[in-house]
Design a protein that fits this description.
The complex is a heterodimer of chains A (81) and B (473). Chain A is built from one helix and three strands. Chain A has 81 residues and is mainly beta. Chain A has a three-stranded antiparallel beta sheet, with no helix packed on it. In chain A, a hairpin with a 7-residue loop joins β1 and β2. The radius of gyration of chain A is 16 Å and the shape is extended. The N terminus of chain A is likely disordered. In chain B, α4 packs across α9. Chain B is globular. Classes of the chains: A mainly beta (81), B alpha+beta (473). The interface between A and B is large, with 35 and 47 residues.
């Protein structure tokens, strides 16, 4: 969680919470990005449907407003008294 | 036949021309998963794939093994059988070996994954060439690892320690998402840990000999040890070692051991992920693992499983795991059951061969399959055949369906049965009509059709099969 925030937008949830997760062991080959809102991750060498918010398929987008209400699987049980 | 580790099994595959070592450069996406899918699309006798030149990694420092048991020859070699062993013979061998449960475990302290240890600055992408499997997966996954947890209320009980396979999303360099469903043993462990307000220690063993990966997907009773079943299936004691941080028992021969905790009470968005049904499962809020210790061999092999539209390696890996328990449960009530092939989408469709006792008997056997423990979530379509049909030979099954099945008399529909929610036809999720398709020959008192004069093979066919087998293979 120490990597600097990337200024680009998450291709999936379109929040400005994308940061560099890691880079390739052989320098310069690729960069992995991750979104701290929806945990979508992608490699810089993937195609635009994976890396570019405008090209990311609409069907697979996530509205950040829907995330808190998502079904918990499994649900968190009550603590024992 | 017992393989010490993944490397020894890969060497056996190589000697049997069932390993393709691909050394040209490949991209993590989409080459690796595409190659795995292409192999199972092309043939059911294909090789395992071993890649050692992956973009972004030094050649040989990061290796990916795919389709390790992704074909019938590889499955036979896993069982120590000749690679051309027919599936039906593998089925009966697998069923017989399971009778030796519980086998013994061999505790060792010299595991090869002790070579390297990492407790700070963990970055899984530097150790393993992680990659996206299917285009719309949320990210990289680990989906063939042996995941080990203990019962927090009974931590010393060896049998209640669970070693299973679950889908794991790599969310960050040292943070994972996992899907421990309530019905899974790990789900019960997590439930108890969260009731106690505790994190659940977890060990994730990546890159294993194939038997424990097979048993990891087997529906055992809660207090039955997967390691003791692996010993029974491989016919030799199963080697295990203590993971250093958690004390959990992990396979001796693994390539990489991740240790950490499932964080109590925490849920985070996970998915989508392309599933074994051939459809994606959507995003849900699921538990999270913090990884705090990594042990690994030098230049570890990342063994991974391509999952997607069947058939994939998972269909081979789970084929007999699914078929054998169903066979044994049916056989307990109906000894006339000859064999069960429930390897289509983990048994959503199953084929049963039975020596029918009287008219209507086959339909009863088919309906019983739906009420077995596995059948409650699967067995949506059951085809019942006579005992002269090999249920693993689809040409024979289709022949019986085409000539012995009468749509007016032989279709039994069971409305609104239970099924796993991942079945995309279920509506609402988890509810679906089920059918028995009776493709057996009508017998008394159900006399109809014209079945008196079936053609038999010429009299010396069996002898010629034996003679030709050595000449044409």
């Amino acid at each position: 969680m120490t990597s600097p925030l990337d200024t680009t937008v998450c291709p999936r949830c379109e929040q400005s919470t994308v940061r560099v997760m890691t880079t390739s062991p052989v320098p310069g080959a690729w960069t992995m990005h991750v979104c701290d809102t929806c945990f979508y991750s992608y490699r810089s060498t993937e195609g635009p449907t994976a890396t570019d918010p405008a090209s990311f398929p609409q069907d697979w987008k996530v509205d950040p407003a829907d995330i808190p209400g998502m079904l918990a699987m499994p649900p968190v049980p009550q603590r024992r008294g | 036949m017992a393989y010490a580790d993944l490397r020894e099994f890969l060497e056996t595959l190589r000697k049997n021309n069932q390993l393709l070592n691909y050394s040209d450069p490949v991209r993590p996406e989409p080459d690796l998963s595409s190659a795995a899918a292409a192999t199972t699309n092309l043939t059911d006798r294909g090789p395992a794939l071993l890649f050692d030149t992956i973009e972004g990694y030094e050649q040989g420092k990061a290796r990916v093994a795919l389709n390790v048991v992704g074909s019938w020859p590889n499955h036979a070699l896993m069982l120590g059988m000749a690679k051309d062993t027919p599936v039906k013979e593998q089925f009966f061998e697998f069923a017989e070996r399971g009778e030796a449960f519980p086998g013994r475990v061999e505790r060792r302290t010299d595991a090869p994954w002790q070579e390297h240890t990492l407790t700070e600055g963990i970055d899984l992408f530097q150790i393993l060439p992680l990659f996206r499997l299917n285009e719309h997966d949320v990210g990289s996954y680990i989906d063939k690892a042996i995941v080990v947890t203990r019962d927090p209320d009974d931590p010393e009980h060896f049998g209640k320690q669970n070693a299973g396979i679950y889908r794991i999303q790599v969310k960050d360099k040292d943070r994972l998402g996992i899907q421990p469903l309530a019905a899974h043993d790990i789900g019960l462990h997590l439930h108890k840990a969260e009731e106690r307000g505790e994190n659940l220690p977890i060990a994730i063993a990546i890159g294993n000999e194939p038997v424990i990966s097979t048993v990891g997907g087997m529906p055992l009773a809660y207090d039955q040890s997967e390691y003791e079943m692996a010993a029974a299936i491989q016919g030799a004691p199963y080697r295990i070692a203590k993971a250093p941080l958690t004390g959990l028992d992990v396979p001796w021969g693994s390539e990489v051991i991740l240790e950490g905790e499932i964080i109590c009470g925490e849920r985070e968005i996970e998915g989508p992920f392309g599933e074994f049904t051939g459809y994606y499962s959507g995003a849900r809020s699921q538990p999270v693992i913090r990884v705090t210790r990594v042990s690994h061999r030098t230049d570890p092999i990342f063994e991974h499983l391509y999952l997607g539209k069947p058939w994939t390696e998972m269909d081979y890996a789970l084929a007999l795991n699914t078929s054998v328990p169903l066979y044994r449960q049916l056989k307990a009530d109906f000894p006339e059951v000859v064999a069960v092939n429930a390897m289509y989408t983990q048994g959503l469709l199953g084929i049963i061969s039975v020596k029918q006792r009287f008219g209507g008997h086959a339909k009863a056997v088919g309906m019983r399959a739906m009420t077995t423990p596995h059948g409650l979530a699967y067995c949506k379509v059951i085809i019942v055949d006579d005992d002269d049909i090999d249920p693993f030979n689809l040409a024979q099954v289709m022949w019986a369906l085409s000539v012995r099945f009468h749509p007016q008399h032989d279709l039994v529909t069971v409305p609104n049965g239970s099924v796993l929610a991942l079945d995309p036809s279920s509506d609402p999720d988890g509810i679906v009509h089920k059918v028995v398709i009776d493709a057996t020959t009508p017998i008394s008192p159900e006399t109809r059709g014209h079945y008196a004069h079936e053609v038999a093979n010429p009299s010396a066919t069996a002898a010629w099969e034996t003679l030709l087998k050595g000449l044409i293979t």
